Amino acid sequence: MKTRDTLRQEIRYQRSLLNTAQQAEQSLLLSKKLIKDKVVKGVKHIAIYLANDGELNTQPFINWCWQNSIAVYLPVIHPFSKGNLLFLKYTENSILVKNKYGILEPRLDVRNIITLAQLDIIFTPLVAFDPQGNRLGMGGGFYDRTLAAWHAQYQQNKEATPLPVGLAHDCQKVTAIPFESWDIPLPKIITPTTSYNFDI
């Protein structure tokens, strides 16, 4: 089995081969697929991310959420708790700043923070995924830490919220991902062409 670092390099390279037109087309297909997916019906608060490093552009879906009175929140690197995330409200008027990874995030304002318990869905980025729902991230462990408490609850109650849903290009699916004890698998991953549901 390939190492995690090798997989990251290979899939990021595959993703980088998509040109601007292909990226735009795939992002619109994803947005249409998300809008129609039953997982989005009735939700009021979602966390999502802004695309980086060849990820699918989430802004078309975010725009739809704004138009349909769904509150949108973005991840912000926690300023005091190392390796953890906060989620802050994102609107058309939000002031965005670059974090230490060069990723845009809302300027920290405690008035705009939402707790995990208040979120319906957390749409998570990923580098690769496999047929078991295993997710390979960039290696920082931010989402694994964020989802650890949810995962513990999910083992007892399959309706536990917030539901984590991975978003990815079709080319990011691989045969197998080397699994570590701290990894949190995802119950659902959506690509521009397919919705995957996993029994985790």
UniProtKB/TrEMBL annotation:
Q: Which residues form a coiled coil?
A: none
Per the UniProt entry, the Enzyme Commission number(s) are 6.3.3.2
GO biological process terms on file: folic acid-containing compound biosynthetic process; tetrahydrofolate interconversion
The record ties this protein, via Gene3D superfamilies, to: NagB/RpiA/CoA transferase-like (3.40.50.10420)
Query: Which residues are noted in the entry as substrate-binding?
Result: L50, E55
Q: Where does ATP bind?
A: R4, D5, T6, L7, R8, R135, L136, G137, M138, G139, G140, G141, F142, Y143
Q: Which GO terms describe its molecular function?
A: 5-formyltetrahydrofolate cyclo-ligase activity; ATP binding; metal ion binding
**Keyword annotations for this protein?**
ATP-binding, Ligase, Magnesium, Metal-binding, Nucleotide-binding
Q: Which Pfam families match?
A: 5-FTHF_cyc-lig
Catalytic activity, reaction form = (6S)-5-formyl-5,6,7,8-tetrahydrofolate + ATP = (6R)-5,10-methenyltetrahydrofolate + ADP + phosphate
Top-level division of the source organism's lineage: Bacteria
Which coenzymes or cofactors are required? Mg(2+)
Q: Which family does it belong to?
A: Belongs to the 5-formyltetrahydrofolate cyclo-ligase family.
NCBIfam families attached to this UniProt entry? MTHFS_bact (TIGR02727)
The record ties this protein, via PANTHER family, to: 5-FORMYLTETRAHYDROFOLATE CYCLO-LIGASE (PTHR23407:SF1), ATPASE INHIBITOR/5-FORMYLTETRAHYDROFOLATE CYCLO-LIGASE (PTHR23407)
The protein's name in its UniProt record: 5-formyltetrahydrofolate cyclo-ligase
What organism is listed for this UniProt entry? Colwellia hornerae
Q: What is the lineage of its organism?
A: Bacteria, Pseudomonadati, Pseudomonadota, Gammaproteobacteria, Alteromonadales
